[in-house]
Design a protein that fits this description.
Layout: H1 5-10, H2 14-34, H3 39-55, H4 66-86, H5 101-126, H6 130-141, H7 146-153, H8 157-175, H9 181-188
Helix pairs in contact: 2-3, 2-4, 3-4, 5-8, 6-8, 7-8
């Protein structure tokens, strides 16, 4: 698979579009299944995402990370399908809780702390080699098991486990953080 397929597709190469579809279909399907959707619904949503990309490609020239963009689009499409299916289109105003000023201030402080921590984690993630970053992403963002990641990357599950362990150690050393990375990684990898 060529690394420049996305740029070639943006320039009108339909073969590059087919390559993109083949490259990302299994990853997108695995992601959809992991977040709890039916296989057929996932396939339909993937088709919808690629149809939208195909028809609107002239408006997508600003997209540089196609993998991240596809995962984001799929998640949104699956949620749209879920909302339509369950007809969740109204707001129950009786369930809205009015927050006190103190809780708002506490939330602002928590958010600032999270942003600071997020910056540190992003910095330490960027210090990792690309393959380790991808393994961390698969495990904590897509919630894939060691075996599933091993299949996707054509590696052994023990190698995946060791790579994750080493990556987390390196991230801790990079930032000298006293946190448990796995707890925080999921929210900051989005």
């Amino acid at each position: 698979m060529r690394a420049d397929s996305w740029q070639e597709f943006l320039q009108g190469d339909e073969n590059a579009f087919s390559e993109l579809y083949c490259l990302y279909f299994n990853e997108l399907l695995a992601y959809g299944l992991k977040i709890g959707f039916d296989k057929e619904i996932c396939k339909d949503a993937i088709q919808d995402v690629f149809y939208k990309i195909y028809t609107c490609h002239t408006q997508l020239t600003h997209i540089r990370n196609i993998e991240s963009y596809l995962l984001h689009c799929l998640k949104n499409r699956l949620l749209d399908l879920y909302n339509v299916e369950t007809k969740i289109n109204h707001i129950n105003y009786n369930e809205i809780i009015v927050e006190s000023e103190d809780s708002v201030v506490e939330r602002i402080i928590e958010k600032e702390t999270e942003l600071h921590l997020e910056d540190k984690i992003k910095h330490s993630l960027n210090a990792l080699p690309p393959k380790q970053r991808k393994i961390i992403y698969y495990h904590y963002q897509l919630n894939l098991s060691f075996d599933e990641i091993a299949i996707l990357l054509e590696m052994k599950p023990d190698t995946i486990r060791k790579s994750i362990h080493r990556a987390i150690q390196k991230m801790r050393e990079t930032q000298r953080l006293k946190i448990s990375f796995p707890i925080f990684l999921f929210s900051f990898l989005q």
